[in-house]
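Retry 2 of 3 after timeout on previous attempt. Resubmitting structure tokens to design endpoint.
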């Protein structure tokens, strides 16, 4: 959110923040004044952040804290401070436990705002289009999907979909530019007339892709058999291959067809070198699990099967994409015959910071810098 009231400009603030000689001036004098001005100005003119703060306080703080106005006032000022200084949302403040971190510890964390600004600042419009539109990525990296995909839209002939359905009576449909598993669902059709009805109903709400179902490896299905349980692999393209930063394993809950944490799933960070899970499971509401809440499998110490194969695949794919992206959040699934590409995310989040309780800001900038090498 753009601030209307700023005491000093962004570049000056960054210079003050980075110097341990000058930062006390900023932290103790300038920043508190900015918080006061922000609350007096932006709260009234652009109240969205104030509403976000109130909503997050209601969700994350226990009742006894709600009855302490002085404590809540201090907490709210601290949230505004972090919003101004570190570009963190009110929710990120709690998910990353900023309340119990000092000024310098807070600089270890990468905010959604900063990540998005950096990726967009690279100016690779082709990468945005290629990775946002599922059909474009499929066309560019078809051999890595190992399954059929069909586009459903007003601009595509229904005959293509009917041909697809003749081979796959049961399949999954996703919005062509969808994220976090939203609106993804499994569809089954038994006749041509039924397929035509499905096509007409879907295209009334935009463009979709229909995908042949992935048959996951039994080792992955043990976690939750109703969802395809995947790896999110944040991958940076470098001259010597790639760098992988804080990857995580995702598994759905019983009855769910998607594994996304935003849809109730659970995720855990694994070591990018060995493929061994190193954290407990976490959901996007802050819940933590030593074992999967349905299957009972323990997260920490679990070895991802055939992990070395997946690492080589990530490095290979990011180098063959026509748009030459510097960063992609790849999703992979394991089948009986090996790893398959599920999708690529142009601006994939680093939610692994929640599970590991460890920020990746410095590594992110290091790897982005390396990714500029050809």
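Retry 2 succeeded. Sequence:
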């Amino acid at each position: 959110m753009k601030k209307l009231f700023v005491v000093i400009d962004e570049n000056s603030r960054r210079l003050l923040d980075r110097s341990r000689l000058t930062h006390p001036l900023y932290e103790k004098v300038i920043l508190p004044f900015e918080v006061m001005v922000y609350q007096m100005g932006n709260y009234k003119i652009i109240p969205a952040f104030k509403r976000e703060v109130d909503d997050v306080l209601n969700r994350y703080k226990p009742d006894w804290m709600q009855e302490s106005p002085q404590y809540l006032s201090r907490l709210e000022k601290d949230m505004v401070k972090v919003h101004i200084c570190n570009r963190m949302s009110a929710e990120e403040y709690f998910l990353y436990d900023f309340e119990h971190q000092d000024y310098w510890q807070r600089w270890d964390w990468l905010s959604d705002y900063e990540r998005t600004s950096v990726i967009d600042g690279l100016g690779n419009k082709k990468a945005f289009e290629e990775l946002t539109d599922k059909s474009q990525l499929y066309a560019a990296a078809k051999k890595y999907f190992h399954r059929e995909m069909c586009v459903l839209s007003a601009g595509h002939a229904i005959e293509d979909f009917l041909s697809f359905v003749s081979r796959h009576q049961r399949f999954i449909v996703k919005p062509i530019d969808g994220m976090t598993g939203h609106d993804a669902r499994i569809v089954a059709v038994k006749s041509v007339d039924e397929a035509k009805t499905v096509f007409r109903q879907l295209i009334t709400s935009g463009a979709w892709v229909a995908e042949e179902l992935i048959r996951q490896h039994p080792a992955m299905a043990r976690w939750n058999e109703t969802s395809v349980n995947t790896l999110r692999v944040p991958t940076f393209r470098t001259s010597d291959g790639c760098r992988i930063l804080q990857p995580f394993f995702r598994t759905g809950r019983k009855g769910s067809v998607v594994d996304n944490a935003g849809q109730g799933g659970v995720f855990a960070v694994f070591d990018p070198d060995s493929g061994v899970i190193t954290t407990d499971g976490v959901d996007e509401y802050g819940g933590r699990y030593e074992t999967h809440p349905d299957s009972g499998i323990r997260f920490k110490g679990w070895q991802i099967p055939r992990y070395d194969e997946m690492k080589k695949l990530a490095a290979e794919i990011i180098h063959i994409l026509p748009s030459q992206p510097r960063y992609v959040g790849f999703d992979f699934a394991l089948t009986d015959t090996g790893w398959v590409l599920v999708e690529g995310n142009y601006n994939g989040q680093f939610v692994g910071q929640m599970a590991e309780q460890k920020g990746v800001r410095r590594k992110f900038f290091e790897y982005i810098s390396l990714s500029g090498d050809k």
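Attempt log closed. Residues 23-45 form the longest helix (23 residues).
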